[in-house]
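Reproducibility note. Readers wishing to regenerate the assembly model reported in the main text can use the exact inputs given here. Chain order matters: entities are listed in the order in which they were concatenated for prediction.
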Amino acid sequence: MIQCPRGTRDFLPDELEKRRSYEGILRGVAHRFGFREIETPIFEDAELFILRSGPGVLKELYNFKDKGDRDIALRPEMTAPVIRAFVNGMGSYPKPIKVFYFGQCFRYERPQAGRYREFFQFGAEIIGSATPETDAEAIAMAASMIKSLGLKEYKIRIGHIGVLRQRIADIGVPAERTAEVLQKLDKKLYDEARPILRDIGVADADAEALFDLTETVGGTEVLDKVPGEAGTYLRELVGILGSMGVEDLEIDLGVVRGLDYYTGMVFEAEAPVLGAEKQICGGGSYTLSELFGGEKVFSTGFAIGFDRILLAMEKEGIEYEQEGIDAYVIPVSDDVRRDAAVIVSRLRGSGRSADIDIMGRKMAKALKYADSIRARYAVIVGRKELDGGCVTLRDMKTGEQREVPADDIFRGV
RNA sequence: GCUGGGAUAGUAUAGCCUGGUUAGUAUAGGGGACUGUGGAUCCCUUGACUCGAGUUCAAAUCUCGGUCCCGGCCCCA
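Running the prediction on these inputs yields the following structure tokens for the assembly.
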């Protein structure tokens, strides 16, 4: 028997219906925030992702040569493709450009709880604007999405890459070693950062002050202590978010995010119920377009890990109710099967979801089946009622029955 | 890449340590009891030892390897 490749899943109808429903909720939020959907190819030139993330990504990329000897990779994320599409064809669109996307991405990693090789991301980008209002819009939408799905336990943390970068430069760390230091700080590995800083020649006191800065964590009031332009910017941002009703935020200057194209605000959201893989959302402001041959344009974006947020919801006990169908048509005997066919197609024509017994079951079994597919009504088609132009409509929940005209079954229901 | 645990019908499980009938049970699926009324009951039926190699007279059971799953690291764009 052949099974799904490692790290991939089949989504059977019950689960897919649920996923589509939640996907619909996210789409709804995006529309309400004035975003329009964009779709890009599932595979791209591998170069696109290498430009974005460095050659190190290759080991986690699903890449291959196609028959034309092109170096292709399945997309591991969607920000780079969207910015590529912007550079290729949306450069002259009115700014700001607000787009969202939903689709699967692929990474060659070891699968774990909430981590798959084929996974789904829902994300958005605001291209061509670099104001606090832009960042606020992105964070507010991410918060609204999490809330709309009904997730209760989550944290949104906001940081600013500029604060740390500025400080790191000020204390004498050369540009080419910044990433190395940031990486340690991101993990709060101060013991590993100390020897690196010492090696560079940073004074111990400066190093400790730097560590203190990454420990600037807490409610929005800690912003009072954040110096410089970044502090002013973040205070402005938090103020706007407050006006938008987004309150439960944490400030954490230790939020660094791996890549160096982030330029200012960075944020992430996590769901503690998830354990090791608890991050459900990440984003920030950045510039990428110049890497892909366009002019330099500021953007802010974020992506939600769809699989993870669903997992978190499941762990919180959020239940999804299957939709079912409106009516299940049951012919009582073989001589009325044609009449039943007329009735089911009339129901379908009028926009109801309707199904009919096609296995020649007896009524008892047919009713049981109707229940198992969550039909709201059973339409029992029998000789007796047909002679009077009627059928029996049975409410599957209450068991109540009444005779209704065969050509207008749902009048008055 | 490192590391711990695991895999028995669609699902949930018993059996494994201590090798030995036809691999048990529940539930789900199909049919019937019930020839026009479901979620109950009873009966019949379909359906499984992850794969490969080894040890043995004999392997679901012991050994080794592969695959996949669940965790913890590394990584996480």
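We highlight two features of this model. Residues 13-32 of chain A form the longest helix (20 residues). Residues 166 and 233 of chain A are 14 Å apart (CA to CA).
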